[in-house]
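In response to reviewer comment 3 from the previous cycle, which asked for concrete evidence that the modeling workflow produces usable outputs, we include below a single protein chain processed end to end. The sequence was submitted unchanged, and the resulting C-alpha cells are shown without manual editing.
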Amino acid sequence: MLILIVASFLIFASLGFRAIENISYSEAFYRATYISLTHHDNFKMDSWPSRAIIISLVLASLVLLAYLLKLFGEYIIGLGDGLKRRKVKAKLLRMKDHYIVCGIGRVGSQVARELASENQLFVAIDKDEDRVKEAIAMGYTAFVGDPTKEKDLQKAKIEKAKGIVACLGDDSSNLFVTLTSRQINPDLFIVSRANREENITRIMRAGADKVTMPNQIGGFHMATMLMRPHVIDILDVLSTNKSSELQVQEIVIPHSSRVSGHRLENVLKHAEGVSVLALNTASGSSQVHPMGREVIYPGDKLVVMGTKNQLQSIQKLV
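The workflow returned the following C-alpha cells.
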C-alpha cells in the first residue's frame, strides 16, 4: 500500500512536469525522484504550477519519512517487547514452588510489590497489556492472560505453584479463579479478594483458604489509627519497614524437626530474645501468646517476633 502511494505521487509529479516544462517522460520522472529525495529544486523550474508540484513532493516525502521513522521505532520497541516475552516464557518453564497473582490492579500490584520485597518467586497475570508491561519493567514475571481461564492458569504453572492470590475487580471472577485453581491443584493455598461481605462464604466454599475484603481492612486500619495511633504505628513498622530491627515471621514445624514433641518453653531456651505471639496447631486451633507449656508437633505454626538474627536462629533450630 505504501509503495502504491509513493508511486502515485511520483507519477502525478512526472506527468505535471512533462506537461508544464515540456520535457521527456524520463526527464520528468528523474526530476520528481530527485526533488523527493533531496528536497531541493536544482532544475530552476520557475513556473508556479511546477513550484506547487515541488512543494507537494517535498511535503509528501517528509510525511513519508516521518511515517517510516514511526514504523522503525515500533519495530525496535517490538523487538524489545519480544525479547522480554521470551524471557518471561523461559522463566515460566522453570517455575515451581511459586506464587500466582491474578490481577495487578491497585490491590494486585501491592501484593506483587510485597512478594518482591520478600524475594518470593511469583508470576502475575492480567488482561491489561499496559499493566503487564509496567510489571515487567519493574522486574516482575508477568504475562497477558485471563486468570479465569484454565489454560492461562496452566501457563502460569499452577500445578507446581504453592499459592495463588485472586485479586480481580469483581467477586464472580475471583470465585471462578478459586474454583478452577482448587480443581487443578488440590494442595494449593488460595487467598481471594471479596468486595461484598455476602460473597465471602461462597468463595470459601469454592475452595479458598483465606478471603479478605480490602475495604474492610482499610477501614479497620484507619479506625485503629484514629483511636490507638501508637499501637498502629508499631504494627506499621513491623509490617512495612523492612529495615526495622524487629520483624514478625511465621515458622512451620516440619515433620523432620528435632523440636517436635518438646514443650515450647524448652525450645525458646535455645532461641533467646524470640517472642512467640501465637501458636496455630495443625488441628486448626489457635492460641495467642502461649504460656510455654504447650507441646509442639509437625504442622504446627509459630508466629514469632524478634530481630533478623534471632529469627534465623530459631529457624535453624526447628
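The chain has twelve helices and ten strands. We consider this sufficient to address the reviewer's concern, and the full set will be provided in the supplementary archive.
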